[in-house]
Design a protein that fits this description.
Blueprint lengths: L4 E4 L6 E2 L1 H14 L7 H5 L6 H10 L10 H16 L6 E2 L3 H10 L3 E5 L4 H11 L7 E3 L12 H10 L6 E5 L2 H10 L3 E4 L14 E3 L11
Helix pairs in contact: 1-3, 1-4, 3-4
Length: 219
Amino acid sequence: MDIKAFAFDLDGTLVDSIADLARAANAARADLGLTPLTEARVASYVGDGASSLVARTLADDYAAEFTGTALQKEAMNHFDLHYKQGLTIDTTFYPQVQITLSRLHERGFALAIVTNKPERYTLPLLRALGVSEHFEVVVAGDTLPQKKPSAAPLLHVAERLQVSPSELLMVGDSKNDVLAAQAAGCPVVAVSYGYGSNLDDLGADRVIHHFADLLEFID
């Protein structure tokens, strides 16, 4: 691979945020008189943005979709309040992420975030974690009309960074990341430690078990 830039998913790839997401989801459920879900259950609902997460955790059903019902909107308001108040209570970087990002940045690689998490959570979270300066472009779930698995976010990043899609390596943990990269013509690496499942069947160019393994693509 001739890599000139990297695009990273956020939740499940750079940071383990499930404790804070589960806390907010369960607080919203409690506000509506519902019993809590396990962190593992909430983790299985992550990946398609906040509205999808709220719909799924409200119904406790992966097939649930956010259609804008009064109850879903109420649950979204509660989730929004609770999550904004606790973005970084327990959210932490996965091992080797910070040092690897620093090394990539120092080596002159352009770095971007491509997440389905809305901007209202993504930007404050990156600032709170102290890594905003590493990323030249941040594409959140509501930055563009389309989000992953659409090719649009990655094509937008490639254009902004002035690289071809084939020179932009997508790094993520889910099917959406792989599908978006394939649709955009980007190479893609999946991390094994995130919230995704059946990674070997997703069709990523490579599956890595440690974030620092990314340095193999430049050293």
